[in-house]
Amino acid sequence: MRKSVVVVSTMATLALLGGCGKRGYDRARPDEFAVARQAPLIIPPDFALVPPQPGAARTQGNNPQAQAIDALFGGPARRSAGETSVIDQAGGATAATPGIRSGVGDPQTNVIDKGQTTSDIVAAPQGDGQDARASVGGAAATAPTASPAPSTPPTPAAAPTPQPK
Fold first, then answer.
1. How far apart are the first and last CA of the chain?
2. Residue 102, CA atoms < 13 Å, CB-side half-sphere
3. Among the four residues 12, 57, 60, 134, which has the most C-beta atoms within 10 Å?
């Protein structure tokens, strides 16, 4: 009897759960962030305008991402007087060399060799530092790992007793 109750209840549970996917209980919901406003239809000031090509980008520049950024942050802020004076003291806003990125890898650039250890550190993959190892002069050193706290607290150093004069 007990075995049949377990079998019947298991089958009933499976039958009830089998209907969840067909009844719309799945977690597929519409994306509320995919909705974008379209610009209202207007009568163009010049009727000689060429109609847009099918599939071409909109000419109004209706970029929802840019609209969201402008709504959140209010567009570019003006520089304060202090910021402007600091930039002017540093050489002005136009003092930067426009082609600086093309000259960085130039063969005429002077490079200082700081040794193999620095090259290894720079070339090492990014990690959390838990398995950090350094090799200096052939001897490998492993970074200490966190160990559990000792069961007995360390004893404080005895205070010196005052000597009578």
1. 97
2. 3
3. 134
Per-residue DSSP letter, 21: T
48-100 pLDDT, tens digit each? 777 778 888 777 667 778 888 888 888 778 889 998 889 888 877 677 777 77
Residue spans of the domains in the chain: they are: 1-123
- Per-residue tokens: 158: 């005895």
- Sort 38 into a burial class: Cβ within 10 Å, 0-12 / 13-18 / 19+: exposed
What tokens were used for 56?
Answer: 């071409």
Q: Check residue 137 and report its DSSP letter.
A: T
Q: Is the dihedral of CA 92, 95, 100, 101 positive or negative?
A: positive
Q: Residue for token digits 């426009």?
A: 98
Identify the three-state secondary structure at position 155: coil
